[in-house]
Specification:
Number of helices: 9
Structural class: alpha+beta
Number of strands: 20
CATH architecture of the largest domain: 2-Layer Sandwich
Radius of gyration: 20 Å
Oligomer: single chain
Distance between the termini: 23 Å
Order of helices and strands: EEHEEEEEHEHEEEEHEHEHHEEHEEEHE
Length: about 325
């Protein structure tokens, strides 16, 4: 059912944002096609939301149609001696997917313990943590191409999804395709070990990340070492510290954006109701009914200070919903 003037603040993981002029929850591919037809009739802008865990929604809201992906079925397909195949719809939460993996004694998803959002969002941004990435568990992705006059289903093997660091073909072409479902290949393992590793990652997030406040997770992408080999400022910084404690695998060697933000002296800085977390400075948290403009101002401040001090241009990991979409 189409709704009007829906408050996006209630949906946003950030608890920030104005109203959507039109809003529709899609529970299957037929719903999506119906919504696209309606959007074309209305001649209005379109934006797809899933878990809304990585999208900064502007204060003015969206003068168009928001389609909220609500398909969430998870099915165990078949298995052999080492692997099981799972089919999961794009709206399935990562938490539910991880729970299913543990119940079925399946490994390869432990890295995602505590990761918010949905499978579709994780595929789109090739989400990763603790050395793992979404692309490593994907066999096939089914999407709906809405760039055609008649929307059509597309099936892609993982190798054709153009997965890169925090990116994919779906993120590079945001108005072209909507992820519907994916086939995952998970390895059989020992349930106790799988559960322990998953819980370790969940507990690490609780300990090291400001989970007590609304946020969008990491605001900026980490910086691959390969991009900064000749950066004198960074090399001097690494020489001042124990570089072995700074450089991490994500899944390749990187310098955490949080480290540079901290070294720039920005921990705890606030604008309006938003703050650069002292606990994890790559998180910009909503501590006091922040507005999108507060977040944006802090983002620009961080980029400016890191650029001036270290000659590094940070790239945002989050996305934006505004009326220019």
């Amino acid at each position: 059912m189409f709704e009007k003037n829906v408050p996006l603040k209630q949906i946003s993981h950030y608890k920030i944002g104005g109203n959507a002029k039109y809003f529709f929850e899609a529970k299957n591919a037929d719903d999506l096609i119906e919504a696209i037809k309606k959007q074309r009739q209305l001649k209005t802008p379109l934006f797809i939301l899933a878990g809304a865990t990585n999208v900064l929604i502007n204060d003015e809201g969206f003068n168009g149609l928001i389609i909220k992906i609500q398909n969430s079925k998870i099915k165990i397909q078949n298995d052999n001696s080492k692997f099981k195949i799972i089919k999961a719809e794009a709206g399935a939460s990562m938490a539910e997917l991880i729970k299913t993996a543990i119940e079925e004694n399946l490994s390869c998803l432990e890295w995602a313990g505590g990761l918010p959002g949905t499978l579709g969002g994780a595929i789109r941004g090739n989400a990763g943590a603790f050395g793992g990435e979404t692309k490593n568990i994907i066999e096939e992705v089914i999407s709906l191409d809405i760039s055609q006059k008649i929307p059509k289903i597309i099936k892609r093997k993982a190798k054709n999804c153009d997965f890169e660091y925090r990116s994919s073909i779906f993120k590079k072409n945001p108005q072209k395709e909507i992820i519907i479902e994916a086939t995952l290949k998970l390895q059989k393992g020992d349930r106790k070990e799988i559960e322990e590793k998953t819980n370790q990652n969940i507990n690490y997030r609780l300990l090291k990340q400001p989970m007590e406040y609304p946020s969008l997770g990491s605001t900026f992408k980490n910086i691959p070492i390969s991009q900064i080999n000749n950066n004198i400022n960074i090399n001097q910084l690494l020489n001042q510290h124990k570089s072995a404690l700074i450089i991490k695998n994500d899944p390749f060697p990187i310098i955490p954006a949080a480290f540079l933000i901290s070294e720039a002296g920005l921990k705890g800085i606030s604008i309006g109701g938003a703050m650069i977390s002292p606990k994890h400075p790559n998180f910009i948290v909503n501590v006091l009914d922040a507005k999108a403009k507060d977040i944006e101002n802090l983002i620009q401040l961080v980029k400016k200070e890191v650029r001036e001090k270290f000659k590094i241009e940070l790239q945002e990991e989050i996305e934006r919903l505004n009326n220019q979409v």
